[in-house]
Amino acid sequence: MADRGCPLEAAPLPAEVRESLAELELELSEGDITQKGYEKKRAKLLARYIPLIQGIDPSLQAENRIPGPSQTTAAAPKQQKSRPTTSRDERFRSDVHTEAVQAALAKYKERKMPMPSKRRSVLVHSSVETYTPPDTSSASEDEGSLRRPGRLTSTPLQSHSSVEPWLDRVIQGSSTSSSASSTSSHPGGRPTTAPSAAATPGAAATTALAGLEAHTHIGVPVNSRVSSKIQQLLNTLKRPKRPPLKEFFVDDFEELLEVQQPDPNQPKPEGSETSVLRGEPLTAGVLRPPSLLATLQRWGTTQPKSPCLTALDTTGKATYTLTYGKLWSRSLKLAYTLLNKLTSKNEPLLKPGDRVALVFPNSDPVMFMVAFYGCLLAELVPVPIEVPLTRKDAGSQQVGFLLGSCGVSLALTTDACQKGLPKAQTGEVAAFKGWPPLSWLVIDGKHLAKPPKDWHPLAQDTGTGTAYIEYKTSKEGSTVGVTVSHASLLAQCRALTQACGYSEAETLTNVLDFKRDAGLWHGVLTSVMNRMHVVSVPYALMKANPLSWIQKVCFYKARAALVKSRDMHWSLLAQRGQRDVSLSSLRMLIVADGANPWSISSCDAFLNVFQSRGLRPEVICPCASSPEALTVAIRRPPDLGGPPPRKAVLSMNGLSYGVIRVDTEEKLSVLTVQDVGQVMPGANVCVVKLEGTPYLCKTDEVGEICVSSSATGTAYYGLLGITKNVFEAVPVTTGGAPIFDRPFTRTGLLGFIGPDNLVFIVGKLDGLMVTGVRRHNADDVVATALAVEPMKFVYRGR
């Protein structure tokens, strides 16, 4: 210090501080700490010995000082007593540290490994004039930092004469280790020395600060070892979290998916353009009342004891038979109650056109039928739904959305069904999640009011108004309501009567759900028009006794039966040992899901087993339907003018390209489908392309079946956008000219028109899976599995 001309001799740093500094340097040399962490900890250690600098609050600076003798002015600082050294001091002496560093360098030279490049601190590039002592810039706020807004200034260091002794003390206290480390890092280099005393005070401060920086960055090996984990962490932090905005708009051709080029050998349609297929005219037939309600009134007054519907329990026993007289009287009482006995604030709760929910289990077709016709007589719109199982059932939430969109405020049910519904603490039916607020009305006989003798309903069921709403669940799980007008309802009943040849007093065994689809159209609506007797087989009975429907056909000498392919499979599994059954009375066995490719296996197997028990091959009549178009096509027996049934063996490879190619059954890569009969009377059918403008397909091309008829649905309730796309399609020719003067309804069925104008269905639009330019269908997967082991698979996977 005397060589520099310093007025006072600076006291060395305390031994414990020098120990900590030596430990830090050792950790830095071994790569256990980063350069930035080293600088932060080192600055924290030295912060207590920095003299008062202008621009820093003395009270804040005092927080980092150790207790000791009071300090005087910078011109005459007191000497601090050095503490006696200990054995710990010997372990961290400068010469010991130098030997450790040299040994580490020699070890790396033996490995011949490149040393990691040293990361330089920001201080290296900072200006000397803006330097701030370490007590205010390095410690974090969590560690009691003095780094607060407005507390630090960039005053030039030349104006503070007290800075120079502090810098001299720091440099002298660590000069040995710094020089040794610098010499070890740079072979042949010279150690760092203190600045000359001949320099001016400002220059001395600048030179001292440079010396401090030299100690900070040169006091350890320049090529210091850095931990690989720390280096990896720093590289990760340097990497931007997201690319710049402009990079989002730059095409990276290396990452673009390769556009699949069309196979030049792929099959392509080669046939001519198809035309509209017209169904047989809808004849008036015998004289009938002008509407379905008028028909009900006729049968209820002229044939009151004629059986209308028989309900069975889970043991197969007939629990109740509803006559046409009882159906008419009970429906009339319900209509009168709905219109005159339900009030809200002295106003009728319901008005014509309001929607009402029908909540009935699958085991109670009698009360459902009374509720349905009672709503029609009261000019209300019934919305049949499933019974909710729990308050938060996911399926019932979607139904609740449908009820809310329809504005439903009243639900009809039975006393037994209401007792099984979840209850709130008040004892009333609980509010289901997603459902609108509902009032519940039990329609058992004791809860209905008898109408006056001169009261008659004013129902008009022949116009375009909505008759009922049938729910449909899409593959995404959403629920929509398909509206069916009074005119469509009447036309559907007449078309089914003509296509199936229904006549009065016939018996129909119905295994399907009577609340929707074919179970509703045949078992609740068309049956009343023809005064038929329907035997309803509940689903619970089918699970207990799969042969029960065949037994009821034999017992009631049913002329027609309405089933699905699953019911035929279950019957095959349970028919062993049953030798007293006969199906000779059947003239039509309607397979409601005949459009599924796997239905042909159940039909063939069922015929093989029961042909010896009176079942004739021409009796099996598959049909195709959809919620939007109702019944699309149905096979007719020969006595009704139907052509012989046909099968088509198609190449799966061709179908994947939407092309029809006939193949042989010997190959495994084929799909065998059966026809679903002819189009419905009074309907016009065409096949259009699946994507884009609905152009007509070619004769050997698979497309979507579209129907134009007065017996289809009219809209999705409250959804005008998708209604126009589905219910108001306008197919065009290749030249762009419309093919018909009326719009068509898309069915969602994929197929083609085969020989004898028979309709073939190969899949559904909801099950379509597109991979590149090839199309596959979920129904094909099921059909393939059934072809491998049909009986065993269906039984276990039903």
UniProtKB/TrEMBL annotation:
<dbReference type="GO" id="GO:0009986">
    <property type="term" value="C:cell surface"/>
</dbReference>
<feature type="compositionally biased region" description="Polar residues">
    <location>
        <begin position="152"/>
        <end position="162"/>
    </location>
</feature>
<dbReference type="Pfam" id="PF06464">
    <property type="entry name" value="DMAP_binding"/>
</dbReference>
<feature type="region of interest" description="Disordered">
    <location>
        <begin position="60"/>
        <end position="202"/>
    </location>
</feature>
<dbReference type="InterPro" id="IPR000873">
    <property type="entry name" value="AMP-dep_synth/lig_dom"/>
</dbReference>
<feature type="compositionally biased region" description="Polar residues">
    <location>
        <begin position="127"/>
        <end position="139"/>
    </location>
</feature>
<dbReference type="InterPro" id="IPR042099">
    <property type="entry name" value="ANL_N_sf"/>
</dbReference>
<feature type="region of interest" description="Disordered">
    <location>
        <begin position="259"/>
        <end position="280"/>
    </location>
</feature>
<dbReference type="InterPro" id="IPR010506">
    <property type="entry name" value="DMAP1-bd"/>
</dbReference>
<feature type="compositionally biased region" description="Low complexity">
    <location>
        <begin position="174"/>
        <end position="202"/>
    </location>
</feature>
<comment type="similarity">
    <text>Belongs to the DIP2 family.</text>
</comment>
<protein>
    <submittedName>
        <fullName>DIP2A isoform 3</fullName>
    </submittedName>
</protein>
<dbReference type="Pfam" id="PF00501">
    <property type="entry name" value="AMP-binding"/>
</dbReference>
<feature type="domain" description="DMAP1-binding">
    <location>
        <begin position="9"/>
        <end position="127"/>
    </location>
</feature>
<feature type="compositionally biased region" description="Basic and acidic residues">
    <location>
        <begin position="86"/>
        <end position="98"/>
    </location>
</feature>
